[in-house]
Give the backbone structure.
Amino acid sequence: MLRAELAGHGVGEPVARKVFARVHRDWGSRLDDMELLPAKVRAALADLGPFPELETLERRRAADGFVKYLFRLPDGAEIEAVRIPLPHPADARALKERRQRGEAHGLVALPTAKYSLCISSQVGCALGCAFCSTGKLGFSRNLATWEMLAQVHAVLREADHPVRGVLFLGMGEPLLNYDNVMAAARILSHPAGLAISADAISISTAGVAPAIRRFAAEKTRFRLMVSLAAPTRPMRLSLMPIEERWPIEELVAAVRDYADTSRSRVTLAYVGISGANMSRQAARDVARLFAGIRVKVNLIDVNDSAGRYQPPTDAEVAEFRAELSAHAIPVVRRYAGGRDICAACGTLAATRQGGVVLGEGPGR
Ligand code: SF4
């Protein structure tokens, strides 16, 4: 849009690219301050002010190093984003090898080398998944593209390590705000923007089937992550009301299209709930549904702040995993960090609880 606006004023592509880079790297840059633009163009664009800053209401650090940000938007709405510390890949590999040799057990803290950010795409969410705090807020509005980018810039500005990944997995259903989310993802990955690898940008969905088809048709390079908490219609109806609008068969057909087009393995984020969806039969149902589609399962413990749903036991996980492995479906149990500050998956609800409240300044 910015480049089209500049082209309308006769600004050529090389200069437009520099302006784009300034605007998206130096958040808050003003077009009317940019001397690389002719004075006439600057005057004409004077009304296009800089993108506003988000007001950071609070930062809370969890015991495991996750930091949750609470932002206030210009209209007073509050949203959250989570900064996730990641180790250097070589350290992570070495730890994996030590685990395989039985020399490391449980959680092992590794030095932080970079961050990934989990950002919000809507204020609240209309989909009302039974295990999710955001769903209980209801839906207020979609975030504008700049409001998603501003979350990244607010965190980046004070981070002591680079941001190398972004997850559209915070508050809201990203594919119900498709155009704005995709515009934000494109700017984040653009070489003249923040140059975050498209492979490191994940967009999650609870199952908006038509938007998955659009995602596939557009051959986007970003990763799709499908949130799946139930492999049968009755189970899904009780946990994810989206089943009424886009039944599970329609979701699977859309995922098949996406897998065929992208030729990549689709990530199913499976929210594990003890006594509900972790039986051997549930694993068989997942395998049956996705037979012939290249998928992998990221198993994430449910985080229900109301306490109604409990995470699976180790025995349930072992059984579920064994059954999926028998069907050649890779399973990884994902660590859901930041539990003590309500920063884990399913707990973002603009609350102020737990952890250590941080001040301003790099590397906090
Ligand atoms: S899990 Fe995602 S889609 Fe479901 S209610 Fe929460 S934010 Fe919305």
Q: What stands out?
A: The mean pLDDT is 89.
